[in-house]
Design brief:
The protein is an alpha+beta fold. Helices cover about 30% and strands about 30% of the residues. The protein has two domains: about 70 residues, lambda repressor-like DNA-binding domains (434 Repressor (Amino-terminal Domain)), CATH 1.10.260.40; about 100 residues, Jelly Rolls. The protein has a six-stranded antiparallel sheet. Strands 4-9-6-7 form a four-stranded antiparallel sheet. Helix 1 packs across helix 5 and helix 2 crosses helix 4. The longest helix has 21 residues.
Length: about 190
Protein backbone atom coordinates (compact mmCIF):
# COMPACT_ATOMS: atom_id res chain seq x y z
CA UNK A 1 0.00 0.00 0.00
CA UNK A 2 2.87 2.41 0.72
CA UNK A 3 3.94 2.09 -2.92
CA UNK A 4 0.46 3.17 -4.01
CA UNK A 5 0.60 6.13 -1.60
CA UNK A 6 4.03 7.17 -2.90
CA UNK A 7 2.83 6.81 -6.50
CA UNK A 8 -0.20 9.00 -5.83
CA UNK A 9 1.95 11.63 -4.08
CA UNK A 10 4.09 11.81 -7.21
CA UNK A 11 1.02 12.09 -9.44
CA UNK A 12 -0.47 14.78 -7.18
CA UNK A 13 2.78 16.74 -7.36
CA UNK A 14 2.78 16.51 -11.16
CA UNK A 15 -0.92 17.40 -11.41
CA UNK A 16 -0.57 20.48 -9.18
CA UNK A 17 2.35 21.74 -11.25
CA UNK A 18 0.43 21.06 -14.47
CA UNK A 19 -2.67 22.88 -13.20
CA UNK A 20 -0.56 25.87 -12.14
CA UNK A 21 1.48 25.94 -15.37
CA UNK A 22 -1.60 25.59 -17.59
CA UNK A 23 -2.97 28.79 -16.03
CA UNK A 24 0.33 30.62 -16.35
CA UNK A 25 0.46 31.15 -12.58
CA UNK A 26 3.61 31.61 -10.57
CA UNK A 27 4.03 30.01 -7.16
CA UNK A 28 3.15 33.41 -5.68
CA UNK A 29 -0.08 33.54 -7.72
CA UNK A 30 -1.21 30.14 -6.50
CA UNK A 31 -0.11 30.88 -2.93
CA UNK A 32 -2.22 34.04 -2.89
CA UNK A 33 -5.29 32.36 -4.40
CA UNK A 34 -5.07 29.28 -2.14
CA UNK A 35 -3.88 30.86 1.11
CA UNK A 36 -0.98 28.39 1.21
CA UNK A 37 2.66 29.47 1.44
CA UNK A 38 4.90 29.42 -1.64
CA UNK A 39 7.40 27.25 0.23
CA UNK A 40 4.74 24.65 1.01
CA UNK A 41 3.47 24.57 -2.58
CA UNK A 42 7.02 24.24 -3.88
CA UNK A 43 7.72 21.29 -1.57
CA UNK A 44 4.45 19.63 -2.59
CA UNK A 45 5.20 20.08 -6.30
CA UNK A 46 8.65 18.52 -5.79
CA UNK A 47 6.98 15.65 -3.84
CA UNK A 48 9.15 16.45 -0.82
CA UNK A 49 6.06 16.57 1.42
CA UNK A 50 2.58 15.14 1.16
CA UNK A 51 -0.14 17.79 1.54
CA UNK A 52 -2.81 17.55 4.21
CA UNK A 53 -6.46 17.25 3.21
CA UNK A 54 -7.05 20.88 4.19
CA UNK A 55 -4.17 22.12 2.00
CA UNK A 56 -5.37 19.99 -0.92
CA UNK A 57 -8.86 21.48 -0.62
CA UNK A 58 -7.39 25.01 -0.67
CA UNK A 59 -5.28 24.23 -3.73
CA UNK A 60 -8.19 22.57 -5.52
CA UNK A 61 -10.43 25.56 -4.78
CA UNK A 62 -7.82 27.94 -6.18
CA UNK A 63 -8.03 25.97 -9.43
CA UNK A 64 -11.85 26.09 -9.25
CA UNK A 65 -11.91 22.33 -8.65
CA UNK A 66 -13.31 20.21 -5.85
CA UNK A 67 -10.96 17.95 -3.89
CA UNK A 68 -12.58 15.03 -5.71
CA UNK A 69 -11.98 16.74 -9.05
CA UNK A 70 -8.31 17.36 -8.30
CA UNK A 71 -7.81 13.80 -7.06
CA UNK A 72 -9.62 12.47 -10.12
CA UNK A 73 -7.23 14.32 -12.42
CA UNK A 74 -4.23 13.02 -10.49
CA UNK A 75 -5.53 9.45 -10.20
CA UNK A 76 -7.09 9.03 -13.61
CA UNK A 77 -6.17 5.66 -15.02
CA UNK A 78 -8.83 5.19 -17.65
CA UNK A 79 -10.52 1.79 -17.77
CA UNK A 80 -13.98 0.72 -16.63
CA UNK A 81 -12.59 -1.97 -14.32
CA UNK A 82 -10.99 -0.81 -11.08
CA UNK A 83 -8.79 -3.60 -9.68
CA UNK A 84 -8.36 -3.50 -5.89
CA UNK A 85 -4.57 -3.76 -6.12
CA UNK A 86 -4.40 -0.76 -8.48
CA UNK A 87 -6.73 1.63 -6.65
CA UNK A 88 -4.77 4.75 -5.67
CA UNK A 89 -4.32 5.40 -1.95
CA UNK A 90 -3.44 8.70 -0.27
CA UNK A 91 -2.68 9.32 3.40
CA UNK A 92 -3.10 12.72 5.08
CA UNK A 93 0.24 13.23 6.86
CA UNK A 94 -1.40 15.30 9.60
CA UNK A 95 -4.24 12.98 10.67
CA UNK A 96 -3.37 9.60 9.14
CA UNK A 97 -6.69 9.76 7.23
CA UNK A 98 -6.44 7.13 4.48
CA UNK A 99 -8.31 7.70 1.20
CA UNK A 100 -8.64 4.91 -1.38
CA UNK A 101 -10.07 5.84 -4.77
CA UNK A 102 -12.24 2.79 -5.50
CA UNK A 103 -13.73 4.09 -8.76
CA UNK A 104 -13.42 7.24 -10.82
CA UNK A 105 -13.41 8.11 -14.48
CA UNK A 106 -13.53 11.50 -16.15
CA UNK A 107 -16.41 10.36 -18.36
CA UNK A 108 -18.49 8.85 -15.53
CA UNK A 109 -20.62 10.97 -13.16
CA UNK A 110 -20.23 8.65 -10.14
CA UNK A 111 -17.16 8.29 -7.95
CA UNK A 112 -16.58 5.93 -5.00
CA UNK A 113 -14.00 6.51 -2.26
CA UNK A 114 -13.17 4.39 0.80
CA UNK A 115 -11.89 6.31 3.81
CA UNK A 116 -10.31 5.10 7.03
CA UNK A 117 -10.32 7.74 9.76
CA UNK A 118 -8.01 6.87 12.67
CA UNK A 119 -9.19 7.05 16.29
CA UNK A 120 -9.60 10.52 17.82
CA UNK A 121 -8.99 12.31 14.51
CA UNK A 122 -11.05 14.78 12.53
CA UNK A 123 -10.89 16.51 9.16
CA UNK A 124 -12.72 19.74 8.37
CA UNK A 125 -13.37 20.58 4.73
CA UNK A 126 -14.72 23.91 3.49
CA UNK A 127 -17.99 24.31 1.62
CA UNK A 128 -16.03 24.87 -1.61
CA UNK A 129 -14.99 21.20 -1.64
CA UNK A 130 -18.66 20.26 -2.16
CA UNK A 131 -19.38 22.63 -5.04
CA UNK A 132 -20.53 20.84 -8.19
CA UNK A 133 -21.04 17.48 -6.47
CA UNK A 134 -23.72 15.60 -4.52
CA UNK A 135 -22.50 13.00 -2.08
CA UNK A 136 -23.41 10.53 0.60
CA UNK A 137 -21.42 8.80 3.32
CA UNK A 138 -22.05 5.17 4.28
CA UNK A 139 -20.31 3.92 7.45
CA UNK A 140 -18.85 0.42 7.16
CA UNK A 141 -17.31 0.05 10.63
CA UNK A 142 -16.76 2.20 13.69
CA UNK A 143 -18.56 5.44 14.43
CA UNK A 144 -18.43 8.75 12.60
CA UNK A 145 -19.69 12.19 13.59
CA UNK A 146 -20.39 14.53 10.69
CA UNK A 147 -21.05 18.17 11.45
CA UNK A 148 -22.46 20.15 8.52
CA UNK A 149 -22.56 23.81 9.42
CA UNK A 150 -24.12 23.57 12.90
CA UNK A 151 -25.95 20.26 12.39
CA UNK A 152 -24.38 17.18 14.03
CA UNK A 153 -25.02 13.65 12.75
CA UNK A 154 -23.78 10.54 14.62
CA UNK A 155 -23.45 7.53 12.35
CA UNK A 156 -22.74 3.90 13.21
CA UNK A 157 -22.12 0.83 11.04
CA UNK A 158 -24.60 0.67 8.16
CA UNK A 159 -25.82 4.27 8.61
CA UNK A 160 -25.86 6.47 5.52
CA UNK A 161 -26.10 10.27 5.28
CA UNK A 162 -26.90 12.21 2.12
CA UNK A 163 -25.36 15.67 2.20
CA UNK A 164 -27.35 18.88 1.94
CA UNK A 165 -26.25 22.22 0.52
CA UNK A 166 -22.49 22.87 0.49
CA UNK A 167 -21.27 24.01 3.91
CA UNK A 168 -18.13 23.62 5.99
CA UNK A 169 -18.15 19.99 7.15
CA UNK A 170 -16.21 18.12 9.83
CA UNK A 171 -15.71 14.35 9.79
CA UNK A 172 -14.76 13.19 13.29
CA UNK A 173 -13.92 9.87 14.84
CA UNK A 174 -14.49 10.45 18.54
CA UNK A 175 -13.78 6.82 19.51
CA UNK A 176 -10.69 4.73 20.22
CA UNK A 177 -11.11 2.52 17.13
CA UNK A 178 -10.75 3.30 13.44
CA UNK A 179 -13.79 4.26 11.41
CA UNK A 180 -14.20 3.07 7.82
CA UNK A 181 -16.72 4.70 5.53
CA UNK A 182 -17.56 4.90 1.85
CA UNK A 183 -18.18 8.17 0.03
CA UNK A 184 -20.27 7.98 -3.13
CA UNK A 185 -20.51 11.17 -5.11
CA UNK A 186 -21.93 12.37 -8.37
CA UNK A 187 -20.70 15.39 -10.23
CA UNK A 188 -23.46 17.88 -11.05
Amino acid sequence: MDTLIDDLSQRLAQRLRLERDSRGWSLADLAERAGVSKATISKIERAEVSPTAVVLVRLASAFDLTLAGLMLRAESQGGRLSRAAEQPVWRDPETGYLRKQVFSRPDHPVEIVRVELPPRQHVTLPASSYAHIRQLVWVQSGNLVITEGGERHSLGPGDCLGFGQPTDTTFANETNTACVYVVALART
